[in-house]
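Q: My labmate handed me this sequence with no annotations at all. I'd like to see what the chain might look like in three dimensions before we decide whether it's worth expressing. Could you predict it?
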Amino acid sequence: MANTRKEIVEELRQLLAQDVTEVKDQVEHLKTRFYSSEVESDVQEEELSSVAETETEPVSADETNDQLGAIDALEMEFKELLSQYKAKRAEVAAAQAKEQADNLARKQSILDEMKTMVEGANADGVMTNLQKMRELQAAWKTIGAVPVTKTQEIRKAYQQYQEQFYDLVKINIELRDLDFKKNLEMKTLLCEAAERLQENNNIVEASRALQQLHDEWAEIGPVAREQREELWNRFKAASTVINKKHQAFFDELHAKEQSNLEAKQAIVEQLKAINEPIVNGTPLSSKQWEELTERIQNLQNDWRKIGFAPKKHNQSIYEAYRAECDRFFHAKTEYFREIRDIFSTNLKHKRSLIAQAKEIVDEQKAKLLSGEVTREFWNEATEKMQALQSEWKTVGVVARKYSDDLWKQFSDTCDEFFNAKRDAVKGERMKARGERAERAARAAVSQGVEGLRRMRDKLQQEIKTAENNILFFTAKSKGANKLVDDMQKKIDALKKQLEDVKEKIETEED
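A: Here is what I predict for the chain of 510 residues:
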């Protein structure tokens, strides 16, 4: 069995090479399957997969158009093959109609001859008429079908003229009995065949076979009058069993189809309920879209488990179902297309903020290297960096595959700026403290020994404090090592000053 639309199209093409009068059921089955949900799951899964990927990976319009174009081309090819099939059917139907009209004319001609024989029957022409009747019967059997609207009328007239001929024409009783016996044997075989059909579990096949038996019964001549009713009742009884089974089968089938219709209508109503917020313009989050998608897919799975609805409703209920599914997935596709556009805009915005932050850091490095850093620069640069941080918070989200990397770049750049600023400010403060201490070694010398002693004590305290503070520095930032080096240089300078003060004290005391 064809499982994809492409396979269905190929199978239809092969059927067109056969006799179109014998493939009607196969063509109708292919048509139903082509437009059924069972062969669309591969398209729906690929479409849903492509839509889901749009959250992280944009899909080109060319790829989408190629996919849609392939689907449209396949449907156009299928419809073209159906048109060819219908054209061939029309040609065959026209030929059959003409043939049936010709057959009707030929049978009507035979009936006219039979009527003449019946109305003009006489004892002198018995043998001639009997032979002529057999020739007409043989000719009748070689003629094909006539228009359905005339079948019963022609058949009834044929049977009537046959019976009238054998009843009214005074023929040789032995020949009459011979024909009756032959007809009895043939009709008895038809009764037995009809009775065997009761064992056929395929009721549709049995019904078609029974119709063929009835056609054959109508072509066979009469039996003896005393046997006609009994034989017909036997054939009719066997036919009644098959007809009742046939009716029961289709009653059950129609009941099942009605139940299927109600189940499908319920699914369509659930789909409408899911689509209601979309139709009303209610904004949905990506998570809500995915939750609704899962519900839609579950309903589609339920739909595939349901059989056909009544023929007059089957196509319309499917179109309603397809429309609701399409409405949802088209809306979802449009939503994620807009999301991709927003993601793209946000991506460009965040990259611009990162570039601006890096420009500030580059300027900072240049000024630190040249020693041109001023308080005005720090104030201005800090204000710019804080403005970038505030602006960053207002920018929406980007695709997940970019989000973490962008944030890391931006936060690292900001950290680099503020860490360098902190280190530089601390360095300036330490430098200022050293200068103040130096101005204090020179003042102490001028104040005599007492001043030198106070200077000595002060330097010793500053050295102790500095040695304690250096223990708290860590290497969390690039400027930490430089700060430790500067602090060590300060300690070394203080120790040198202390040695100088001690020498001066000794000199003064001597």
